[in-house]
Specification:
The chain has 9 helices and 12 strands. The chain is of the alpha/beta class. Helix 1 links the parallel strand 3 and strand 4. Bound molecules: zinc ion. The site of zinc ion has 5 residues, from strand 3.
Length: 304
């Protein structure tokens, strides 16, 4: 199918602002099939329940590195707590930064040891998969408060249902809730008349947008959805500048900020402590897929 080139070389679907990263897997169909409650889920948890609640859960992926400190400084100044999805190999390099995240009241979460796309290779070798999750778990668990909840996000949002079975057989790792998806920050979208309507930070930096322009996309998507789990990264030169553009505006508009362990909707996925896991029908909403945006054709500069 030929794509129609629009005036700015930008594809847009104003009616369908779902958040789905361009490189993530197509969500499986068949919503409504019986799914195990509690433990790792067979597919990503797309529904946070935070939309339309004027509540935002900021999530920062792929750290820590040296730039994570700047993000922490910004959050501290604004008195906002967030969730950090940790990559194991980064944590090995920056253990001090990892400890600082926990010390400053943020929630540590698991984003795999090597940020690999957890595909068929990991399904064929359970140990390979378990090691990806356990490496991060062993680093973050000692820094977390007793009883603090465990969350996992799959790199690129990529997941296979068989992974849930493998990980749920592990005595410790079965306590994770996940994979956690996001509501906001999955990709760049623009309106027909050239307004930035949604943004994804890694794409913003790749096409050399300023933090100010990128923030417009984040803010408009958050306002349109009136809350949600927000995907950002804490590892780039511009990461803290983006936080400084987005967060004060949201505070001004009366948004509440929560960590993922304060998201009520996720409680249904927690491993029951005193009874075997229930099996129930979970109607996870599959987000609408946006047409891929041709980011190589997007304009740069201080966009509207
Ligand atoms: Zn990531």
């Amino acid at each position: 199918m030929r794509k129609i080139a629009l005036a700015l070389g930008v594809l847009l679907t104003l009616s369908a602002f779902g958040a789905l990263a361009a490189d993530s897997a197509k969500p499986p169909t068949g919503a409504g099939k019986p799914e195990q409650l509690a433990f790792f889920q067979q597919r990503s948890i797309f529904t946070s329940g935070l939309r339309a609640t004027h509540t935002v859960a900021l999530t920062f992926d792929d750290g820590p590195n040296l730039h994570t400190g700047e993000v922490l400084d910004a959050l501290k100044q604004m008195n906002v707590r967030a969730t950090f999805f940790i990559v194991g190999r980064q944590a090995h390099r920056y253990p001090e930064m990892l400890a600082r995240i926990a010390r400053e009241g943020h929630l540590l979460a698991n984003h795999s040891a090597n940020h690999a796309r957890l595909g068929t290779r990991y399904g064929a070798d359970p140990d390979l998969l378990i090691n990806e999750i356990r490496d991060v778990h062993d680093q973050i668990a000692p820094l977390m408060a007793p009883g603090e909840k465990l969350y996992f996000r799959a790199p690129y949002g990529y997941w296979k249902s068989a992974h849930a079975r493998t990980l749920n057989a592990d005595r410790e790792l079965k306590h994770y809730v996940g994979p956690i998806y996001w509501d906001v920050g999955g990709e760049i979208a623009m309106s027909r008349d050239g307004y930035v309507m949604a943004a994804a930070d890694w794409e913003c930096w790749r096409i050399k947008w300023s933090a100010k322009t990128c923030a417009k996309g984040y803010l408009r998507e958050i306002r349109r959805k009136n809350g949600g789990v927000v995907l950002m990264h804490a590892i780039q030169v511009n990461s803290a500048a983006l936080v400084r553009e987005v967060v004060p505006a949201l505070i001004e508009e009366g948004y509440h900020f929560v960590r993922l362990d304060q998201v009520p909707q996720y409680r249904q996925y927690e491993t029951p402590k005193d009874r075997p896991s229930a099996v129930a029908d979970v109607q996870g909403k599959v987000p609408l897929r946006l047409s891929a945006v041709r980011t190589d054709k997007l304009p740069v500069g201080d966009l509207k």
